[in-house]
Amino acid sequence: MGIIRDMQRVHATQAFADQRANTAAAQQRDLIRRNADLAIAAAQQAAADADRKREHQRLYHEAKTADAAVANAEIRARLSDLDALLLSTLDVDDHIDLQVFKKPVVAPPFDPGPLARPLPEPRWDSYVPPQPRGVGKIIGGDRLRQQQNASALRAFEDARARWSEAEERRKAQLEARRRAYEESLRKHEAKVAAYNAEVDRFAKAVADADPASVVEYFAMVLGNSVYPDDFPQHFRLAYLPKQRHLLIEYHLPPVEVVPHVKDYRYDRFRDDLTAVPRDETEIRRRYVEVIARVTLRTIHEVIEADRGGLVRQVSFNGIVDTIDRRTGRFVRPCLVSIQTERDTFAAIKLRRVDPVACVKHLEGALSAQPDELTAVPEKIDFDRDADRDFTEEFNVLAEIDERPNLVALTDTQWEQQLADLFGIMGLQMGAPARGELGTRWLATDPRPIFGGPVVIFANRGAASGAAAVHALAGAVTAAGATKGILVSLGGIEPAAYEAVAGRPLELIDGPALVTLLSNYCRVKARIELTA
């Protein structure tokens, strides 16, 4: 029933997009972006007139201030999305009525086209020769008329013969078209009937607690749950029918989903956009809350979607695929583990709970330091327990989403994607050069007065720290550049932001890069680590 899951997912994604587009945060962000675009356009117009440099400079500062406002609006919108992870699903009915996927037999009526209209039959009136007049009537009129009548009669009979043959062909073609239509209709009806029978078979299998079908159904439910683009939404499910126990192993987003920048501030005297880092304690607190919300949201969606009483107990392990910044190795720690009875969970009023306190109330194990990848004891051993009955793995994004995974791009594709992005943003990109710190470009900002050489570093490894910032600053000085840009897909450490202070450097982490690609290139990218 993969096609049903895909159809339902598309509908859920569109509904979420419509809902998010109407939020106050989205409207505010769009307004700020429009104001920024207007300010930039005004600055460019003023720059064309050498006598209006002062006006150009004023408008330029307004544009840069608007850029900072846009960036801050994006941060506020992201925090709003994270805060609403649990509450947003409470307004959605997660149950899937499989009967709505049945298709009616809708076929266009038979259209014979021009074949439905008989050809006009030849009429003798059109062939009767005119009566002779004048002299012709007196001299040989009868003989001439007989000759004309004979000729007209032969022409009329030939026309009738051709018409009769054409009519026979038309009727034969009409009958052939009718038979083809009826055959096509029978095939269409058979196809729809087979599809509807498959829906009925699947619905019955789910109602009968067939493990494979139950897993498929709840995969559809969780696949409908639309998260922000950079959430992995990768999970494994297993169903133990005798115990009516659903096992869930869910991939959590990395800590980078929490904005590490608190806000951006533009210094007009230094022409510098400074990123103020968010306090590590706040990042940890928000990340713990994200984990708790995803956990409660997933369990809620399963229980609300289960109207047939298939699940009596739910076990949830939340893991994260990421890079350990201390070792540079891929790790997969379990950051939350919970096991709860259906009735116990259903009695909780999720609109009014503190997510972290709620997980602890359910005796769940929740990492106190998930940003440090501190694992918790697992309530279940998924592989061992799931092996007793049935298990299946689902990667929703991989199955139904063709967004490029920035981690999995080849080096050439990665470099081309960044070159395209910065080119669209106005930089003239030089040739890429690969080194220990990733890929390096020497670009040019063609703007008068504020333009000049720009050094760009980009890497897809572990989070960048102060050393990467110092290396970039040194490259900027050596090149006589006016600005440096560091793109770090694996994240940016707080020490890096501290090292930027007072320097004309810009730091771009993974989520920020995804946003830039969406805004400037219309590319919906994702970041999903692979082993």
Report a brief summary of the structure:
InterPro entries: Restrct_endonuc_IV_Mrr, Type_IV_Methyl-Rstrct_Enzyme. The protein is an alpha+beta fold. The protein is 49% helix and 16% strand.
Q: Keywords for this structure?
A:
single chain; about 525 residues; alpha+beta; Trna Endonuclease, Chain: A, domain 1; 3 domains; six-stranded mixed β-sheet; five-stranded mixed β-sheet; about 50% helix; flat; Type_IV_Methyl-Rstrct_Enzyme; coiled coil; Restrct_endonuc_IV_Mrr
| Average pLDDT level | 84
Describe the main β-sheet briefly.
Answer: 6 strands, mixed
Number of DSSP E strands: 15
Q: How far is the first residue's CA from the last residue's CA?
A: 29 Å
Helix content: 40-55%
Contiguous low-pLDDT stretches (5 residues minimum) are none
Strand order of the largest sheet: 9-8-5-2-1-10
Shape: flat
Structural class category: alpha+beta
What does this structure look like?
It is a single chain. This protein folds into three domains: 30-94 and 231-400, no CATH class; 95-112 and 145-224, no CATH class; 411-521, Trna Endonuclease, Chain: A, domain 1 (3-Layer(aba) Sandwich). The chain is built from 16 helices and 15 strands. Strands 9-8-5-2-1-10 form a six-stranded mixed beta sheet. A five-stranded mixed beta sheet has the order 11-12-13-14-15. A two-stranded antiparallel sheet has the order 3-4. Strand 14, helix 15 and strand 15 form a beta-alpha-beta unit. It is α+β, with helices and mostly antiparallel strands and 531 residues long. Helix 6 (141-207) packs across helix 7. It is flat and about 120 Å long. The model has no long low-confidence stretch (mean pLDDT 84).
